[in-house]
Specification:
Elements: H1 3-25, H2 29-33, E1 36-43, E2 50-51, H3 53-61, E3 67-82, E4 85-98, E5 111-124, E6 127-140
Parallel strand pairs: 1-6
Antiparallel strand pairs: 1-2, 3-4, 4-5, 5-6
Length: 144
């Protein structure tokens, strides 16, 4: 594999990491679920594990709409395994406010959590997708 092909794979996988945050923050259930393969495994720290895109779509479709959240993603590292497989890790600082008032800046909002993600990726007929995502909280603020 040449350097250009490797960089393209790294770019596509990092893009999935960033789109994950965008789609969950902006309540885009279909787009969020489509980041994953049909047979994906998803293990979010505070929720039951999920198997398959349909379970992921059902979970994200029921995501609470009375909160404002923003994930600030950083430290995306992608290791290319071969032309069709990669793995990666990243961090996200998560800000959240319950029952925000639209058009009004949130006051006194501090990071709720720092999350560490561990991913595997696979090239599909539709492009690169997340095969598995597991995460844990590195830091978690109580009651928020």
């Amino acid at each position: 594999m040449n350097d250009i092909d490797r960089m393209l794979i790294e770019h596509e996988c990092r893009k999935l990491m960033l789109l994950y945050c965008q789609h969950v923050d902006h309540f885009a259930p279909t787009e969020f679920a489509n980041l994953f393969t049909e047979d994906a495994y998803y293990n979010p720290a505070a929720h039951p594990e999920m198997n398959g895109r349909d379970e992921i779509l059902a979970w994200i479709s029921d995501y609470p709409r009375d909160r404002l959240a923003r994930h600030v993603s950083t430290n995306q590292i992608v290791e290319v395994v071969d032309a069709d497989h990669a793995r990666g890790s990243s961090y996200a600082v998560v800000y959240r406010q319950e029952q925000p008032v639209e058009g009004t800046p949130s006051e006194k909002v501090v990071p709720r959590a720092i999350v560490e993600y561990h991913d595997t990726f696979r090239r599909t007929a539709d492009g690169w997708r997340i095969v598995s995502r597991e995460y844990r909280y590195t830091f978690l603020k109580e009651n928020n």
